[in-house]
Every structure is written in C-alpha cells, then in structure tokens.
Amino acid sequence: MYQRYLKRLFDIIIGIAAFPFVCVITIIVAPFIYLEDRGCVFYRAKRRGLNGRVFVMYKYRSMKMNAPDIRNKDNSTYNSPKDPRITKVGSVLRKTSIDEIPQFLNVLKGNMSVVGPRPVTTDRPLSDYDEKRRVRLTVRPGITGYTQAYFRNSVSQEEKLQKDADYARRVTFIGDVKILIKTVETVLLRKNIYMNVDDPKQWRT
Which DSSP string do the residues of 168-186 spell out, in sequence order? Predict the structure, then answer.
C-alpha cells in the first residue's frame, strides 16, 4: 500500500512544498555559479530510473564546464576534496549537498522519489545488469537513500548497490522516515563526503 500509492502521494506533497524553496535557493546560488566561470547554472545528467527508463536529472553545476568524467575502477564517481574539476562554488555546494536541491523538480515530474536508491548512469546496457542492479530499478531513484544517508561515500560501489537492492525489496514508511532523519544528520555533520581515493592510478576516464 505504502510503496504503491502513498509514497508517490507523499513525494508530490513534499515536492510542491519544496518548490518555493528551490526557487529561492536558485536565485541565490545561480549568480555565484555563473560568475565564477560564466558557465551553465544547472547540470543535466542522463540517468536510469524506474524500470530502467532514462531521464534527465537536475543538479546545480559544481564542476568546471566540459570537465572530463573521471571514475574509480569500480565505476563509481570519483569524489575528492582535491578534485581539480570542482569549482570553488561547487565545493561549497557539494559539502552542504545544496547541489542536489534541483532534484525536487525531478520528484514533481515523477522521475524520482524523495527517498530511494541514487540513480545510476546510462553507460551500461540493461542486459549487463546483475540481480542487485535490476532490483534497484523496481523503485524510483531518490534524492537521498539508505546508502546515501548511512554510508555516503564510505563503502564501495558494489556494497552500495547491494544495500540499495535490499532497500528496494522492503520499502516501508518507517524506513523512509528513518532515512530522512539520518540524511539530515549526515549532511549537518558532513559525514563521509569523500571517498579515500586520491591515487590517480585508481582512476579511469
């Protein structure tokens, strides 16, 4: 009942409530993003959502324009305070998770949920997905999720995928509330923002 009907209703209510906040934050941060390098304010990324459908996810741009896509060897996104691609404004946006705020627009559009597994990239065909990757796609991706709230970047990509699959198999209202509360704690205390991967030998492009 919750997963099938109420979760989407709650998403719509939260999305509508958050929309004015998104507008105000955009008015504040947009000039800083643009003035640093005269680039786009928003970053539009193709991601896989519910049942593998591709959609465009919105974020405030935190990297320099046309920055290369650097990945760790496990295909997770490279994330480090020493990343030369990140702008000065982008560094602040990432540390505070403000860069994720435009995803409330995705929630209103129905591409995402407030709580769910983080959306994955489209660089791997669905035919190559293993069970845990397929299970993750049975629920809408979220602005925050179980691994984002409890582990963020402190565990490997495969561990994240497995824990997200476990979440997708047993979505509950209480579980989502706990994730939201834990997310607030994680963001305020700035826990596990970066992975401990600063050796270029561990990157791939």
Answer: HHT--HHHHHHHHHHHHHH
